[in-house]
Write a structure and sequence with these properties.
Elements: H1 5-13, H2 53-76, H3 82-99, H4 101-115, H5 121-134
Helix pairs in contact: 1-4, 2-3, 2-4
Length: 135
């Protein structure tokens, strides 16, 4: 394979295109607007309607498990008072999903292509070429 699993994971963690490695997932000058296709290699980023529901699940899971659960545990054991825990939970519940928006989209692509690396155009061309030689 031209693009390895390690490259896909590295590119996903650094918000880069899983196919070419370019920092082209999001439109230049915008924080939240995703490109439909990678300007560098043409990879279709948003596959179908609802493709990024997995990104919402990732974002929700990280927010609840990694951020809100520790606040609840610390409140339960008396480390935080009621008001502090409430304010912290509200700030995290609202701020974390916005802060992780870009990463969760990138992680969704990383998970998809790490499971199906043959769907990347860079890998598909190599496989297509092998199939042509065997015919």
């Amino acid at each position: 394979m031209k693009v390895t699993h390690g490259q896909i994971i590295t590119r996903g963690l650094t918000n880069c295109c899983p196919n070419c490695g370019g920092k082209t997932l999001f439109k230049a000058g915008t924080m939240l607007e995703l490109n439909r296709k990678c300007p560098a290699c043409g990879l279709k980023i948003e596959k179908d309607e609802g493709f990024f529901l997995g990104a919402m699940a990732i974002n929700y899971g990280v927010t609840c498990i990694c951020l809100l659960s520790p606040v609840a545990i610390l409140w339960y054991y008396g480390v935080f008072g009621n008001r502090t825990a409430t304010v912290l939970a509200i700030v995290l519940a609202l701020g974390a999903p916005i802060a992780m928006y870009r990463s969760s989209r990138s992680w969704q692509l990383m998970l998809y292509y790490s499971m199906l690396p043959q769907h990347l155009p860079a890998n598909r061309r190599e496989l297509d070429g092998l199939e042509d030689e065997n015919v």
